[in-house]
Queue: 3 jobs
Job 1
Amino acid sequence: MELTTKGRYAVMALADLAANGRADRSVPIADIAGRQGLSQSYLEQLFARLRRAGLVRAVRGPGGGYRLARDPGAISVSAVVAAVDEEIRVTACQKGDALGCQGRSSRCITHDLWAELTVHIDQFLTSITLADIVADAVRGRAAAMAAGPSSVQGDSGRCVTAGRLRAHGMGGVHAT
Amino acid sequence: MELTTKGRYAVMALADLAANGRADRSVPIADIAGRQGLSQSYLEQLFARLRRAGLVRAVRGPGGGYRLARDPGAISVSAVVAAVDEEIRVTACQKGDALGCQGRSSRCITHDLWAELTVHIDQFLTSITLADIVADAVRGRAAAMAAGPSSVQGDSGRCVTAGRLRAHGMGGVHAT
DNA sequence: CAATTCTTGACCGCATTTGTCGGGAATAGT
DNA sequence: ACTATTCCCGACAAATGCGGTCAAGAATTG
């Protein structure tokens, strides 16, 4: 798994764009870089990819800049990260082997684990949009999903049975 | 976030240990490295950390090796990864700044997002133990949690309302 | 004492990430 | 047309740290 600053920066930039731009107003990269404290040249590279992925549209010339291609509520964090973090490295488990895990017979014991983790993470990132970030509606979201996804929406159909979630202190996975 | 091969290898090794060893039998690193196709010297480093974290106990001399310190069902993947993937880099968002995100006033927009993601991932990794891996009881686990954690255990208290999960194709987050 | 096996620390090459730089191409205003 | 603005693109540089090796040493068994 590989989620680097590229992904973080991209989300920050698009969230900024969602907050400080409208459908009619373009925001220049320099402004975003300034507000978010990021390198302008670096951001340019990221926006190039975001554009190729169809998430933003560019307007050149004076008064130009970028604007979101869709509604902020229709752009998931998952999509943003995917646009920027290219290589879908389904890394072979046994690196000497060309087919690796896919090789059916010698599928390594932890294969399912990482596959499931990928799904789990993607479910989360897909469930959050730029609109959510701008609206500051993200805190507590993980707990909400764990309690049952229905509670994320409103709170019909409660479903709180604890299940088997050992406590244990979160370690090994780092963010921010 | 940073989940590298170190974490993968560690889990593979401990799962192997859970499968091929008992409370009375020690398994030498060489055996594990051989079965899992990993570098022995590299594994040694990982086991050093696993031991310091209290997850395994070492027995030296001929007939020695490693054995799990606890029951396989009492060791979560989260614990393993945490033991091996050291640096708790709560990386400052604005790298020039010493306090970064914590600095209350200038907390960057995406702070909550990554914090929640960390929680979300950890919930998953904490819910899975070595015993689960050995028993091959991991497939479909993410979907199960999304449907409501209660369904992971058995299937009392169903709770299936879809919630807001846009489809979208998983991208950007890679595993093996 | 000799064979195992863990224990530790130093070391290194390489790929990837994280940028920088400079020039070029569209566009708007004058 | 000229100029200022802004996106666009490719090459290049630096740093980080991952993945892995090597060698020496300390327990333990027989």
Job 2
Amino acid sequence: MFLALRAEVESALTGALETLDLPTDDLGIEEPPEGVDAVVASSVAFRLAGELGAPPAEVAARIADAVDADEYEYVREVRAQGPYVNVLPTPSYYADTLDAGRDDDYGELPATGEDVLVEHTSANPTGPVHVGRARNPIVGDAVARLLDYAGHDVTTEYYVNDAGRQMAVFTWAYETFDEDDLDSEPERGRVEYDLVRYYRKGNAYLEEAHPDAVEAAEDEIQSILQGLEEGDEETYERVQRVVDQVLGGMRECLLRLPAEFDEFVKETSFMRDGGTKELAERLQETDEAVIEDGAWQLDLSEWGYEKKLVFLRSDGTSLYTTRDLAHHEWKFDAYDRSVTVLGEDHKLQAGQLQAALELLGNDTDQLENVIYSYVNLPEGKMSTRRGTGIDLDDLLDEAIQRAREEVEKRLDDRIREDDIDADDVERIAEQVGVGAVRYDIVSKQPQKAITFEWDEALDFEAQSAPYIQYAHARSCGILDDTETPDEADASLLEADAEIELLRETARFPGVVDAAATDLEPHQIATFAREYADAFNTFYRECPVLADDVDPAVRRARLALVASARNTLANALDVLGIEAPRSM
RNA sequence: GGGCACGUAGCUCAGUUCGGACAGAGCGUCUGGCUUCUAACCAGAAGCGCGGGGGUUCGAAUCCCCCCGUGCCCGCCA
């Protein structure tokens, strides 16, 4: 309802300003602070005060007088409060919110018909997913869900980097070394934990072995790269044997979050279909293409890049960015918009990619990036190759373990109404543990650096998923054994806590809209926390099922609780966090 | 050296796009609350003037300039 109200306010203010013969370019619409009855406000009077030579308060009063609230469904009254023009909503604003909130899909916006591709994670298939890059699947999955809620047709893509040097190294190492050569047992039963040992062994060998031996190995690695470039089928099969196994394990790990993908697009596919070769030829024909030291490069100084972008090595082979250009033209072909979630270390590359795409005549307005900073350990960076880092599997296991302890502690602490068996404990522990990890990451602005600390990542009491999940479980506790009334009179909701909760409920679709526009799922995380605050206050102050509650009031409160349950469940759903029915 | 990010209570973070109502939460500290729909909760107290300095403005955490600190990037790697 908030979006509808705001639209009415825009129209009303524009009309009022036109009546007064004032400019309407900036309406100064904002949400008032806590403690103000208004739901929407405007600070436009400040700006017009100078022009009119009158104090802001007087201007605000004049504007408020010029609005006829009767023309609008949700605007009850527009009044000046000091220099602000404040808008109070009609009873139907609350009544319609109470109705809309009871739909299971409350918060989902109407379909836009826009096809959006969200590429995220795309971690090189070299080994177990570690926490350093865990931000990518968590933020990426939330962005995809958010755009879905905002009404777009979303496809998620994992771009598989199976053509680079590291995969050639991996393939060589996998074929060269035996189990006996490895100096450690796999840390886990899953396949990527087994195979990563070959990758690490290979890298160590290249650093430590006799120069002659290293040269022989390098020859083999080069022949793999050349084979891929030439589209040699046997080489391709050899590399894929490693890629598919490791990727399969990584997918299982990501599924625990859960992060799922509609498409796995392989980098080699743009070599095998000739797309990269054709693209390089088009680049060669541009005015910006130059040959330096035998390599084809792009002079992108017009776009502000000092560094030239090499797109063909002196031996004629393509580079990652060359293939990624073909990849992106493929995206542009198939989708209306393309969003990529990537680490800040790829920022320069992404900028050059965009410039090159423009150079090739693409409309890059359809391309957007969500950039995040890596999660580091107190002692430094995490690395798959060196084997330093916390595995995402370990983090999730630890989170679930700590959540299980909490659930069990609470079982001992108090007598509960609901019956919880061992399966329930396990389910709740998983929902809460994984949810806590996701919320910890998705609730922060992605561009801020995070240093990983176990106790911080696994703090269930701070502003965390469990707090929001708990509010949801409480709402279920009220609704579970109760008939949800068909009729509910919103005007009976008069307590501060009730009105506040209803106001917050009304905001939800608007928050989805804003967060999706900005590609910022953390806005949903902030909202969800504030919403849980409002619900918990309501829960404390307004009994629903108590005997002395008037039946009509009870019906209204039940409807409000149903709206709250849907809002909490869907806000969590946007973030990819489960909403337990009991905790 | 250059480019890009980030710097808000003791700690972890919202707020910065689009400048406006007293700068907000959680944790921690202190106080009170479970015969009442789940106390992973609620209510209250103390605590920051937004890295530093200039500027623009009626008004700056928010915009501009300089400086300091931290991170990332500046490969014929990905």
Job 3
Amino acid sequence: MTARTSTESARDIPEATVARLPVYLRALTTLSEAGTGTCSSEALAAAAGVNSAKLRKDLSYLGSYGTRGVGYDVDYLRYQIAREIGVTQDWPVVIVGIGNLGHALANYSGFRSRGFRTVALLDADPARHGEMVAGIQVRPFVDLESIVAEHGVAIGVIATPAVAAQAVADRMVACGITSILNFAAGVLSVPAGVDVRKVDLSVELQVLAYHEQRKAQGELA
Amino acid sequence: MTARTSTESARDIPEATVARLPVYLRALTTLSEAGTGTCSSEALAAAAGVNSAKLRKDLSYLGSYGTRGVGYDVDYLRYQIAREIGVTQDWPVVIVGIGNLGHALANYSGFRSRGFRTVALLDADPARHGEMVAGIQVRPFVDLESIVAEHGVAIGVIATPAVAAQAVADRMVACGITSILNFAAGVLSVPAGVDVRKVDLSVELQVLAYHEQRKAQGELA
DNA sequence: TCCGTTTTGTTCTCCCGTTCACAAACTCCT
DNA sequence: AGGAGTTTGTGAACGGGAGAACAAAACGGA
Ligand SMILES: NC(=O)c1ccc[n+]([C@@H]2O[C@H](COP(=O)([O-])OP(=O)(O)OC[C@H]3O[C@@H](n4cnc5c(N)ncnc54)[C@H](O)[C@@H]3O)[C@@H](O)[C@H]2O)c1
Ligand SMILES: NC(=O)c1ccc[n+]([C@@H]2O[C@H](COP(=O)([O-])OP(=O)(O)OC[C@H]3O[C@@H](n4cnc5c(N)ncnc54)[C@H](O)[C@@H]3O)[C@@H](O)[C@H]2O)c1
């Protein structure tokens, strides 16, 4: 899914680790807000819900930011992880499809607080244009190109119905967006060099249902 | 995360495969609606966005539902996968926390169409009680026990702020819910035998940001 | 009936990720 | 200064999943 180009840069962090770094980051933020200055890998692992050995190995890919016999300085480690992920900088984001889900996303404060700034809300339906959502005006989808160019947007979010998703993705890619978060069902096809992450709620529920069914079967055995 | 009890039932399907079965199911539904009666592993794999060898191996865990030299009967395979996942039966679901996200989830048609029936929308805020969302009345959170008992609910969805999530989960577990889909940030701790799946949008965006940052670094090298 | 073609089901190998276990490194106390 | 106690960082073993490759099976045509 994630097509990487020629030169793999210096430190190569495993994909599984990358997916956990944001979790560590959040745990560290919580600890920091609670006034904790230092924490052990054991404590941080508990806060993040992972095995402590895994945590230490993950952190070792970034460098040696801990002190043996002591632990990690919470704020220092937090900064190092934030820098590695890239959330110390500001990421402009556009959201396309301001329906039920789009409204929720636009109102979600968790994006802004992590360096993601919603610069535009776009929708194809003229009836929605001009509506204010979370202090931002909904604009026509055709404005995509100019907005992306103006703000240097690299990340796009798709919250349209499934039938429109591929067309939206194509337009996004055409005007230079290289990372897409897709909430619509179905498979998006994009050129190499563009990253797509998909969030599919019905898949999550179906996985739960599978295990639930198994539990029920086990009971009557 | 998924704690399984004593007797692993007859066929043991790998977790990675379980997570892909819903994707195959959707692809098969699309093919069926397009009037396709039979398809090869190659075609289905393309529709699902996976490698055809992986698809065949996944399906082999369920049994031999294909015909060599021909392919798979779309409707037959669809039924078999649906049965295996458990979406041929009806799953009552409660959603707790009817804010921005809760509204979107309640209005989402993709749940109902896959066998998940929202039987209740619960919120702790009295100001929300009585509001109609997607044809269902929002009720007080304290009604959880009676609703779960009445409908035999096994699956709960948490869309409350993070601070309330653990308390909500505890209450859910106490009244018999054994599968939880959690949208709130942070780690939920639940007893063995309860499955939790977490959807964390800011993690997804941060993973994209990481790769985006890498692409940018690569360019100026 | 037999042969060529197509496509599945499965085996085998490789790679990634997880976990264990321990030496190295640091602090604190005597 | 030295030793006891802690905790990190990492080497190594292990397990599971991904993909290649192929044998087995079904079909169609002659
Ligand atoms: N609501 C949920 O909780 C939920 C959950 C999971 C997945 N999803 C998926 O997310 C997507 C959006 O869901 P929703 O409930 O918000 O749907 P919705 O119908 O409420 O909103 C879709 C919005 O997209 C706009 N749109 C349609 N075509 C467009 C185009 N070509 N360009 C720009 N905008 C366009 C529509 O005008 C509408 O405002 C769907 O694909 C849905 O399957 C939703
Ligand atoms: N909005 C999004 O797009 C989005 C995205 C990702 C994650 N989230 C997460 O999902 C959760 C909900 O987000 P939201 O935007 O809908 O928030 P929200 O504040 O709009 O809604 C939260 C709702 O939960 C209710 N609530 C609070 N405490 C409760 C309790 N103890 N029991 C029952 N109900 C309770 C509140 O009354 C409110 O209606 C948050 O944890 C948020 O971080 C939201």
